[in-house]
Amino acid sequence: KYLICNNLIIWKVLALLDECNSNPLGLQPIDFIPAVPQRLTDERNDKEISVVIAASDERLGGAIAAMNSIYHNTKSNVVFYIVTLNDTVDHLRLWLSNTALKNLRYRILDFDPRVLEGKVQVDPQKADPLKPLTFARFYLPSLVPHAEKAIYVDDDVVVQDDILELYNTPLKPGHAAAFSDDCDSTTNKVAVRGAGNQYNYIGFLDYKKETIRKLAMKANTCSFNPGVFVANLTEWKLQNITKQLEKWMTLNVAEELYSRTLAGSITTPPLLIVFYKQHSSIDPMWNVRHLGSSAGKRYSPQFVKAAKLLHWNGHFKPWGRTASYAEVWEKWYVPDPTGKFSLIRRHSEAYEAK
Ligand SMILES: *[C@@H]1O[C@H](CO)[C@@H](O)[C@H](O)[C@H]1NC(C)=O
Ligand SMILES: *[C@@H]1O[C@H](CO)[C@@H](O)[C@H](O)[C@H]1NC(C)=O
Ligand SMILES: *[C@@H]1O[C@H](CO)[C@@H](O)[C@H](O)[C@H]1NC(C)=O
């Protein structure tokens, strides 16, 4: 029965769900706000553009700015699928309904971290707690079960052009996703301090391990950034991508297959394996990244202006104390009506008035 419903192995984990129609993962659509004024819906093209974003409480302002920028730069009928943990739902709902964002169409999906049991190493020594929502992207077909195509974006981006263009990225037959390669331009190559080259496979995977060597993947292959991608969910399901990703997560727990100097996200290595030479490309301007890799400015203002999507991956987030081009990001930020989230700024007085 599980297999008929859905190929995801999580059906076994959460066997409490006994209906094919119910969502796996304990993902419950909590909110759906179709109450957009008629005039607006008419202006906007009918075809739904599904955009999936993960929103964790401690950086909720990021997801807010990302959604605001996407919404304001398109005439398309964008619907956001916001994946979050159950204790963030109320906060998020207040933020979205009491501000300029109230016309946004969205659905809040509650991610049950138990899905990850046995698939991620829980190391009590590590200061960094596990961030379960970073794995939400592995489960795309269960998040937007009706969609054939969907976009996934991280919460540390802003979009400066029409997301429809990204959505229309062509995917080659047999490809389940399109990513932007890390060596598609010199600006995207970045040497992470103490971690060597993080733009090819050897920067992410431990090539000393037999299991990795047996895959015969060239170590100098360009890696790609999984923070922004377009997916063909029909193809994703056909190839059981989710199940493949879970297999590599589980294997990593047993064999530690990721590079020990891994500086990027731990969601990257399984994606690199599963999509090795099996993905299409997105326009590099749709993922201008590393704005958060250092506090300094790595791009000219002209280049930043021309970018279609800006991505503050790295430690220096635009809602934090120091970040490059934080003012560009802040144009899209909508203050939290509950006051729980606030920007950390050197001149905090400037923000107190609000
Ligand atoms: C959230 O989920 C966890 C585990 O799934 C549960 O223990 C907790 O009670 C839930 N919290 C709320 C506020 O629903
Ligand atoms: C998605 O993949 C399916 C199966 O390969 C294919 O039939 C369909 O045309 C693809 N759709 C898009 C939008 O690329
Ligand atoms: C995907 O899983 C289904 C059911 O487990 C199986 O029949 C099918 O062969 C798998 N497809 C691939 C490409 O592994």
UniProtKB/TrEMBL annotation:
Its main location: membrane. It is a single-pass type II membrane protein. Keywords: Glycoprotein, Glycosyltransferase, Membrane, Signal, Signal-anchor, Transferase, Transmembrane, Transmembrane helix. Residues 1-22 form the signal peptide. It is found in: Membrane. It comes from the Eukaryota. One of its GO terms (molecular function) is UDP-glycosyltransferase activity. InterPro entries: Glyco_trans_8, Glycosyltrans_8_dom-fam, Nucleotide-diphossugar_trans. CDD domains: GT8_like_1 (cd06429). Gene3D superfamilies: Spore Coat Polysaccharide Biosynthesis Protein SpsA, Chain A (3.90.550.10). One of its GO terms (cellular component) is Golgi apparatus. The keyword Acyltransferase does not apply. Belongs to the glycosyltransferase 8 family. PANTHER family: GLYCOSYLTRANSFERASE 8 DOMAIN-CONTAINING PROTEIN, GLYCOSYLTRANSFERASE 8 DOMAIN-CONTAINING PROTEIN 1. This is Glycosyltransferase 8 domain-containing protein 1. It comes from Anser cygnoides (Swan goose).
